[in-house]
Design brief:
This protein is mostly helical. It has one domain. The chain has four helices and no strands.
Length: 105
């Protein structure tokens, strides 16, 4: 299931992106509108760890598949934009299909 570095990166990207959305649209309003800073501390720490994993898997996939610096920079920038993981996933699917050898039946 997780035999490809691109597949691992896709999953890490999606989970990191979801944690970013939870931080922005759930935890931060609770902090600033509701006056409760605890969700931002919990979700913020979780997002930070997931972001570090995102960078690790980006580097692993970039090194293994010899991605250009331009594409790698694009992948990094999408992690800074809300809903960016959806745009990145579209490109990663294409790269994953291109790197997967054809299976003989």
């Amino acid at each position: 299931m997780l035999d490809s570095s691109i597949k691992k990166f896709r999953i890490a990207s999606f989970i990191e992106g979801l944690s970013y959305l939870v931080l922005l649209f759930i935890a931060m309003p609770i902090k600033y509108i509701g006056g409760n800073p605890i969700p931002v501390k919990i979700v913020g720490m979780t997002h930070g760890v997931l972001f570090c994993l995102f960078i690790y898997f980006l580097y692993t996939a970039m090194s293994e598949h010899k991605w250009s610096k331009k594409f790698s920079l694009f992948a990094f920038i999408t992690s800074l934009v809300p809903f960016g993981m959806l745009f990145l996933d579209k490109y990663l699917k294409k790269k994953e299909l291109a790197s997967t050898p054809a299976k003989l039946v």
